[in-house]
Amino acid sequence: MDTLRQEPELDVGDVRPRGPFLPRESPLPMSKQELRGPRRGEGEPKIAPAPLALRRTLIFLGTVAMTAAGSYEMYEVVNVGGVTVLEWMVLALFLPLFAWIAFSFMSTIAGFFLLLFRMKDQLGIDPEAPLPPIGSRNAMLLPTYNEDPNRIMARLRAMCESVDLSGRGSRFDWFVLSDTTDPSIWIAEEKCFLRLRRESGASNVYYRHRRENTARKAGNIEDWVKRFGAGYDHMIILDADSLMTGDTIVRLVAAMETHSDVALIQTLPFVVNAKTLFARLQQFAGRLYGPLIAAGITWWHGTEGNYWGHNAVIRVRAFAQDAGLPDLGGPKPFGGHILSHDFVEAALMRRGGWAIRMAPTLGGSFEECPPSLLDFAARDRRWCQGNLQHLAVLPARGLHWVSRLHLLTGIGSYLTAPLWLLFLVLGILISLQAQFVRPEYFPKGFSLFPKWPAQDPILAAWVFAGTMGLLVAPKLLACILIGTQRRTRRQFGGGALIFTSFVIETFLSGLIAPVMMIFQSAAIAEILLGRDSGWQVQRRDGGDVPGKELIRKYAWPTFFGVAMAAGAYAVSLPLLLWMAPVLIGLLLCIPIAVLSSMVSGPAPRLFRTPEQTAPPWVLVRAEEFAKAADESAMPPLLELVHDRQLLEDHLANLPDEKRRNRGQIDPHLAIARAKIEDAHRFEEVLDYLTARETFAVLNSPTLLRAICTKPDRNP
């Protein structure tokens, strides 16, 4: 595959950072190579170890058996009097959609029995055992892009303290890797970072800001690996909303030291700090059902696990040697840098002979959730584009078949949305055809008996019930499992509260699912039409959305709800009632969106999770730091004028202008320079400069020093 390329191996050397700010220039340029097969000569194993092969056989045989049974019953539903063209189309859609549900169900069944009988972790990680010693050098990487500086520094400081309390703090360095483009946030980041170092006394915390955020988060990590990775054995990748306990971080590193063939260990992050109803639904569902799913897929994934992009430990050498991301040919949205880079990085490292593992029962790993359905859908739109880009990665030579399956699963998670929509539309068309189109009782050719177009409604009801059962059964199994865990059950609030929350969450999720079906179908249509998702800042706090935006965003789900309801009612009232679970969510999507995005009261009992009942120390500490932070802000240039020490530190963080490429002119800087020369007072500079021009000035040491230190420029 000519368009898929990979980075070469890095040389090893001591490139430990010096000082709080990091240099930006790259002393180790990485050229891209043709991807022609496995890197380390080990390649794709032809046969998996016997226990692992048996596990996978059980999962796939169970999936095939249930799919065959469900498809046969669906065929019997439409085969009363013969199968029409539309009915054949429905059968063709039902087969992959039911297989998708059955596949997920089989993994959940495996996870249920693993957790029920408390089987040993495959990596030998015991969260209850004494904390092991570690001897490696480790880097904690926190990439950020226009995020709230106070909150990210609060989380970073809490994690840093948690690791220090474990007695292993000297084995870790912490890096804030900023791709921020907003000038006010950039200066606030530096201010918060310097305050963190000053107040905590931590000399192993560093900050780097990239002027050009090439390849987004993946490029941010790549830049660090090229310049500083050779000085470290492992790196733990965080997101801006990530939190991990020191205990979990140390145990992950110890597992990497024990298993030298492992390139990556992924944790299961639990959602925390949910404030809106929508976020609390996701928090409760992930905490209750997530462990079953994670344990199940870990059981049969084995050494061919996956990477979710954050809250995971990675062996730096394996990443540098084998995880160089490809540049896909063609224009965006399918070409260019891969948005969903994590799946591809895991596949490339596995192709290089490294094991990719997961630790589903370790705990101590947390993240946050978008506060509203619209915020969730906006993030999902970016993920959708990234997963569809994986179509170009699938044919790459040397990938393990399970790694290809991960890529296919990511693609399928979005393609199923338009398939479900088409399935529903075809169902209505079949009913409309039977109601308004005169049937051909005696088709061409000799026939003694008429051909009656009909379906079996009773059998259809059983097929529907079986499908719903496969969707709901994993949730019921999770409730049963929690019932066997006394301590966890109490932290959830008790059996009665768990069951009540489960019933309401299932009902509300059923209303939200059709809306997400429309959003995902629209996302795929946009991508096929060539629209790029861009890189939008993710909102993490309040979920309030302006009324005009609500109406504009939810117009399509409402339209589809009205159209489908009209079509169903035109056939019969029973069909309308039959489709009510889908139609209600679409027709009421705007009021549901408003209600679910509202901030809940303090510590509600419904949808309670263990992290709310007994919050880990690192969560409490991060919240304390965030509340104590000074959130007052002023324009970035004014901030530097008032704080000369901040100005000097900022200038120290900038590269020498003489080292920049000659002949390279920044048009925003040129415009800013002209505006500054025309300005008579400092206040005019603040008024005239746009955000991009201010960003250019902040990147120019000469111009910045001139406007911030001249006496006649002082406010």
Protein described:
The strands form 4 sheets. The chain has a 7-stranded mixed sheet, sandwiched between helices. A 3-stranded mixed sheet has the order 7-14-9. The chain is globular and about 90 Å long. It has 715 residues and is α/β, with parallel strands linked by helices. It has 27 helices and 14 strands.
Task: Indicate the overall shape.
Answer: globular
What portion of residues is helical?
55-70%
Give the overall pLDDT as a whole number: 86
- Biggest sheet details: 7 strands, mixed
How would you write the strand order of the largest sheet?
A: 5-4-3-6-10-8-13
CA-to-CA gap between the ends?
A: 60 Å
Structural class call reads alpha/beta
Radius of gyration over all CA atoms, rounded: 28 Å
- Strand fraction equals 5-15%
Total beta strands: 14
Low-pLDDT residue spans: 1-18, 23-47, 448-452
* Number of helical regions: 27
